[in-house]
Amino acid sequence: MSEKIKFAVVGCGHIGKRHAEMISRNEECELVGLIDVKDKSVLGIENYEVPFFASLDEFLASGIEVDVINIASPNGFHFEQSYKVIDAGKHVVVEKPMALKKQHAEKLIFQALHKHKQVFAVMQNRYSPPSAWVKEMVESGKLGKIYMVQLNCYWNRDDRYYKPESWHGKKELDGGTLFTQFSHFIDIMYWLFGDITNIQAKFADFNHETLTDFEDSGFVSFDFVDGGMGSLNYSTSVWNQNLESSMTIIAEHGAVKIGGQYMDKVEVCNIKDYVMPELAPTNPGNDYGAYKGSAANHHYIIENVVDVLKGRNTITTNALEGLKVVDIIERIYAIK
């Protein structure tokens, strides 16, 4: 693949526009189509001079040449649309979560293997310098045995986010707080420490009864299959603005805490015979006006797609890891 890689994007909301922007900025890519059910005039996509379609079927029927289709639609559509893309013989980049059911994620992977196509799962927090640094600390054994891991995710999501006309908060399309808000953090935890077992959990709906079909807060505890124990404490009922996302690791040779709104700062590094290096700065968080999202790392995802398809690199988040995140969330929610 020496020529430009052709992309189309399904879903032109905040995230879809980020995909379109990153594709447009990459000189090895070409944006060939945008797809959304909403009218073009309300989406704010007039700077993209590419054909616009009201459905994925319409785009696929158009005969426009495309290599990769990015899915940035509501969660509940991810599986069905990704499956269609693979079925049509194209690679797919799918926003988190890859699906809302493990069996759907499995089906998608099976079809991708069958068609020899790549499924790129978007988990952009892996690209932040603190995440990459912790990964190296765990894998190199500098931390020794892992004893305890605590993940705290305390965010604000109120009626500025859960609007009546939005898909956010609807069980079928959203899936739940862990799928939409915190799957990135579950991904980081799985990436660092592997699978979990012996899950116990309690959930509450404090101030979202009229806004969502599901819980807004939870305490979850578990053991890691590879040893050590962990907990995930999360809430979207924080008043007015995000409070924190943090991960504390207590291990044989030291303690580490990553914090900041988006796990973008190493707050504590206290490790035997080790001096903390200067890390590259983390990209700022995505700003959606009234509420904030996680670090803006989508350009790395597009770069990785290009590198993989041109045979220069391996995939950063493979589909199996995307499936494991869905599986872990499904098992946590099964306790309800």
Automatic annotation (TrEMBL):
Database matches in InterPro entries: Gfo/Idh/MocA-like_OxRdtase_N, Gfo/Idh/MocA_Oxidoreductase, GFO_IDH_MocA-like_dom, NAD(P)-bd_dom_sf
Origin: domain of life: Bacteria
Stored Gene3D superfamilies: Dihydrodipicolinate Reductase, domain 2, NAD(P)-binding Rossmann-like Domain
Pfam family, one: GFO_IDH_MocA_C3
Residue intervals of the GFO/IDH/MocA-like oxidoreductase domain: 134-256
Domain Gfo/Idh/MocA-like oxidoreductase N-terminal, chain residue ranges per copy: 5-120
Record's protein name: Dehydrogenase
Native species: Chryseobacterium sediminis
Classification of source organism: Bacteria, Pseudomonadati, Bacteroidota, Flavobacteriia, Flavobacteriales
